[in-house]
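Can you give me the bound-state structure? Components:
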Amino acid sequence: MSAEPLVADHAHEVSDHGHDPHATTTGLSHIKLAMWVFLGSECLLFGGLISTYLLYKTRGNGRTLPTDVFDIPFTSVSSFVLLMSSLTMVLALSAVSRGEAEAGRTWLLATALLGGVFVGGQVYEFTAFVREGVAFTTNPASSAFFTLTGFHGVHVSLGIVMLMSLFVASVKGKLTQRNAETVEIVGLYWHFVDIVWIFIFTVIYLIPAD
Amino acid sequence: MSDTATSEHSEPDTAAEHHDTEHAHPSDWAYVKIAVVLAVITALEVFTYFESVVDWGVALVPSLIFMMIVKFYLVATWFMHLRFDSKLFGRMFTAGLILAVGVYLVTLTVFEFWV
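Here's the bound-state model for the whole set.
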């Protein structure tokens, strides 16, 4: 019969992101594992949308194609903004992990603002496209383009909501060093949204259509 | 901004040696350096758009795909901490990624995308 207590005191064995490695059957954070599985499944979602656009990108039915109205310099700036938001996100996690709540809030807010700039840029791009005759139902190519980039934009918007929730939680003192893993989970989602855009920017915008 | 590793927390370090989940994360400056590399690669990507400056010829598409893969790898390994975390996390993500790439390469081939 073991003399080990049934409930161990793991208060001293919490990792740097607030996860207790003894609390799960794998020794890993199951929430974090679930997020990675979710992100793996998201590859299938965006893979389908990107493939659909690639198959339809030249099907304009005699009308203007999205590739005809791309504004690469403008989209490049948007891409750079989203890329830099990944830096501010990882700096937010770093600050919260060190217990620096104020710095964590600053970087979280900066990430949300950069995400907001990206989404604002996307809204501007969409309206500019519509003015130039490329709307959602113009042709199969435009439908596939708006569906793909629209889905990505919704993902960024949801990320901003999550970031602002973390910011509010931090202001209320509910986001501390002990639950920094929550920031890491949101960060994983945010970085994933960034790497999806890295793919979209190259494959959809930069590689010539023909 | 701290120049010290984020693993330098107030908890005792003894447990860190025993768990797969424990990991020393890079300093903030290391993240900044990675971001600078990403920014430079993005600038190079955009540079290819201006054909009047340099004619990339047949090297254009392979170069763009190579730069995209490097950016993808840097964000996944450094910012998403796959380089430092348990390999199981990476395997879960890679499984989805490989499945997606495989399924959609077959789809594109079936629809004669490459012809």
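A couple of observations. The longest helix of chain A spans residues 140-171. Confidence is low (pLDDT under 50) at residues 1-14 of chain A.
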